[in-house]
Write a structure and sequence with these properties.
By secondary structure, this protein is an alpha/beta fold. Helix content is about 40%, strand content about 20%. It has 16 helices and 14 strands. An 8-stranded parallel β-barrel has the order 7-8-9-10-11-12-13-14, surrounded by 6 helices. Helix 8 links the parallel strand 9 and strand 10.
């Protein structure tokens, strides 16, 4: 019997689990119990235990009579395993793997739910909230949103779920403004939309080039607001994100007291994040969040420079990162990616190199697509192209 099933079964005591040969179970006609096939055996859950007397001898007799009554008496005499203290259960599912988010010490799922344009693709509000709740129920514990995702629409949607599930997740948002005052004003409004007094992780959104970093680092720049937000406990931890320039991201990592970074990390190696920024982050034990795993679907497909979703997910998750943010605009995609994360095993280095070679023809095109990219829509795109 699988270890996880046995440990689950030992917790409660109102139901039986029996392990029987497949053919003998078919002969019983018992169809209402939960049945899991394990080779030529069946694990049969949900066979209700009869009321038993306190006397132990009578109890043993009663159990035998009960098994005989449901057609399993011969099987028990042949050595069938009987677990006395088993609760009814849904088919067991493996939990999502988790990793430690760098110096924060927090553990989060290796698959994160992206709340950008793909989340906003759920046009029906109820369906959007159902998808987010389903993601959390499936074991996803990292939620990634931002003001620029619909000018607060994504944060508002997430906030409706956070009203009752804030403690279930690691909540991250991103602020696009480049001055301290505008940054803090935007953050206060974001917290209201998210229906919380703090986020777990707050990012400066979409670091671009050297001039952009200079604006952020100015005496009254966004970096000052970011650090104040952490000091004032509006955010537990702080970071930056970038889609485009690994060299500038590496500089920001080296210069500043960040806790986490979020960057484009995929098999095309666009922006040189994997080569430059990722080692800098790992050296300082920052939590690293991978994004653009599929390059906004640019890397998905057949042919030169393309790959399937499983391979792209596996590549990014095989890097020294904590989690990979993926937008999942349909429940089928959510289910697929959750299963891929559950069954994740890392690529070997030769497999990683093969993926790089296969996807490298898309690198230049993806870099062009991500210049000034934002996963909006927003009415203020100039924030990301300054």
């Amino acid at each position: 019997m699988p270890e996880e099933l046995f440990s689950l079964s030992a917790k409660l005591n109102s139901f039986l689990c029996v392990v029987v040969p497949f053919r003998e179970w078919l002969a019983t006609g018992q169809t209402r119990s939960r049945v899991y096939k394990d080779g030529e055996r069946l694990l049969v859950f949900g066979v209700r235990r009869p009321r038993l007397k306190e006397d132990s001898v009578t109890n043993d007799l009663s159990r035998r009579k009960f098994l005989e009554k449901i057609g399993l008496g011969a099987a028990t005499s042949a050595g069938v395993l009987l677990f006395k203290d088993v609760a009814p259960a849904e088919p067991p599912t493996a939990p999502l793997p988790s990793r430690t988010l760098g110096r924060t010490g927090a553990k989060v799922s290796i698959l994160a739910f992206g709340c950008g344009s793909r989340f906003l693709a759920y046009k029906d509000e109820d369906k959007a909230q159902a998808a987010l709740n389903h993601a959390i129920d499936s074991g996803i514990t990292y939620l990634d949103t931002a003001y620029a995702y619909g000018d607060g629409e994504s944060e508002t949607r997430v906030g409706k779920v956070m009203a009752s599930r804030r403690k279930d997740v690691w909540l991250a948002t991103k602020i696009p403004d480049r001055t301290r005052d505008e940054f803090m004003r935007r953050l206060e409004a974001s917290l209201k939309r998210l229906q919380t007094d703090h986020v777990d992780l707050l990012h400066i959104h979409s670091l671009l080039h050297a001039d952009d970093l200079a604006k952020i680092e100015a005496p009254n720049g966004a970096l000052k607001g970011l650090m104040e937000a952490r000091e004032q406990k509006m955010a537990r931890f702080v970071g930056m994100t970038s889609h485009t320039n690994g060299e500038i991201m590496a500089e920001a990592i080296q210069r500043h007291d960040l806790d986490c970074v979020q960057m484009a990390l995929n098999a095309s190696r666009n922006g040189r994040f994997e080569e430059l920024a990722l080692p800098a982050a790992n050296k300082k034990n920052l939590g690293v969040i991978a994004m653009k795993v599929t390059g906004q679907e640019f890397l998905l497909g057949a042919g030169a420079g393309k790959a399937d979703i499983n391979s792209l997910l596996r590549y990014s998750m095989s890097l020294p990162v904590t989690t990979a943010v993926v937008g999942m605009p349909q429940l089928e995609m959510l289910e697929h990616n959750v299963q891929a994360a559950r069954s994740f095993s890392p690529f070997s280095e030769p497999e990683m190199e093969r993926m790089r070679q296969e996807v490298s023809p898309s690198r230049e095109g993806l870099e062009h697509n991500l210049i000034g990219h934002l996963d909006g829509p927003t009415e203020c795109p100039e924030m990301f192209t300054a």
